[in-house]
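Researcher: Next entry in the queue.
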Amino acid sequence: MLVDTHAHLDFSDFDSQRQEVIARAAEAGVKYIINVSSDMRGCLASLDLIKKYENVFASIGIHPHSAAEAGEEDFQRIPELLKNEKVVAVGEVGLDYYRNLSPQDRQRDLFSRFIGLSLESKLPLIIHSREAEADTIDILKSRAAGLALKGVVHCFSGSRDFCKKCLDLGLYISFTCNVTYKKSEALRELVKYVPSDRLLLETDCPYLSPEGQRGKRNQPSNVRLLAQFVADLRGCSLEEIAKDTSENAIRLFDLILKGISGR
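Model: Structure for this entry, 263 residues:
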């Protein structure tokens, strides 16, 4: 069993083949897919998806790229959306100082508020952090104020020091197919560094297709290819990686409590 902990199946890239893509993932052993929202349109589209597909679950949030356009009325709608029984996380939320599509102060404010929602709802965070390591850690620490954080830093691409600080906060670390790229030596070292009980896998599809498929649309079935690549890096079997990462996903996202584990 495998879990794609971060996909964007609501994107228009999948409009013509969404059902086939989800079926192909199941054939590859991907039992569960978490569809992660980026804006209010995506939140509503994710809720539609989880009605149609039993093995797809949702995360509700607003990406830092969309922070500037998100109004107060949008944020006020989020708590009600989080009550859906197939919503398993808050996200994707965080900071992106690489593209800076929203003012940094607006990103920080919205991230802080979403951390509060995560603590209130007891749902884990799916965190986006790009070239914003210090602020990400500072906001997580100050907003949580000693309370236990649950969450994952998705598509991890940061430094070893940032990775350690995230692990020290109790967060999980998720890797995507970009670890297969020829110039990702430093990232591959981090794949070997993260403890087996904190490791997650994702595609972030339609982005970041694996080496050999770059330029093509990524899809959840590629989690199997990623799992094999990670197994080779860590010197273990595909079965071991599949078991560890699936158990981690079930634990973090409370899938047993959602009544879906073992289906």
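Model: Strands lie at 2-7, 30-36, 56-60, 87-96, 125-130, 151-153, 172-175, 199-201.
Researcher: Noted, moving on.
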